[in-house]
Specification:
73% helix, mainly alpha, 257 residues, 8 helices, two-stranded antiparallel ribbon
């Protein structure tokens, strides 16, 4: 009997308890193991006060630097555009990138700062933190992909650039980026679960209900659509840009006039 309890406990630690307790939440399984509270099962995930203080300093530094730099750059773009009386297509994409970075500083970092402290509001903090994280990361990666596509068209397809890239198309692209981010943020809100450490801090994770099917599907789709696909697109497009630039340089060296 003791060996069975130990085996179950180890599986809970590594998120495998769903194989023994289908359609059951992780924290409910933890409560049933030898009558131990959830916090005693995860002592290794707790943080020391020194570590928390260090993280707080880093978060504050990133918050101040990011808020000042991104806010200043957005104001500069708006100022320049105001005098030109119209937005260039690439300015729309770049401003969206700055806006995403600013939102990370203003919304995600404060939640992360409070998240490091012991809290009884894990049911609110964890969905909010993971939702902001997944949504803003999706927006960031796809905005970078749009920027790389814009640079590719400008350098490789320079003759047709003004026809191919318009303000309307850029606005549609930005809208699609935010729709993607909102979709992943909403699913993250619905699928996020939590437990406490010994000191009362929150540990967030995706739910393992229904044999962990939702966790596997969400993670697989998110990684592929928000990391692998945009990263591959960025590398391929900039690879073409480097190839074309190198080819033009060789042609210029051969025919300087």
């Amino acid at each position: 009997h003791g060996s069975v309890n130990v085996s179950i406990q180890e599986q809970v630690k590594f998120g495998l308890a769903s194989t023994l307790y289908p359609a059951t939440d992780l924290k409910h399984v933890q409560d049933q193991i030898d009558g131990q509270p959830r916090s005693t099962l995860h002592p290794a995930t707790d943080l020391t006060e020194t570590t928390v203080t260090f993280y707080h300093i880093i978060i504050l530094m990133i918050f101040v630097i990011s808020a000042i730099l991104n806010g200043s750059l957005i104001m500069a773009v708006i100022y320049v555009t105001k005098h030109r009386r119209h937005w260039k297509p690439n300015q729309i994409i770049i401003t969206n990138m700055l806006l995403v970075n600013l939102m990370i500083a203003l919304f995600y970092l404060p939640v992360l700062f409070y998240f490091l402290e012991p809290s009884e509001h894990c049911s609110l903090l964890c969905p909010l933190l993971t939702g902001l994280e997944r949504g803003l990361v999706a927006c960031s990666t796809w905005t970078l992909a749009w920027i790389s596509l814009d640079r590719y068209l400008f350098i490789v397809k320079h003759v047709t650039y003004k026809i191919s890239v318009t303000r309307t198309k850029c606005l549609i692209g930005v809208l699609l980026v935010w729709i993607t981010g909102v979709i992943f943020a909403v699913f993250s809100l619905l699928l996020t679960d939590y437990h406490h450490t010994k000191s009362g801090r929150c540990i967030c994770h995706l739910t393992i209900r229904y044999y962990g099917i939702f966790q596997l599907l969400y993670s697989a789709v998110y990684i592929r659509l928000c990391f692998i696909l945009p990263t591959t697109l960025i590398l391929v497009l900039y690879g073409f840009v480097i190839h074309v630039a190198h080819k033009r340089l060789l042609n210029k060296q051969k025919n300087p006039f």
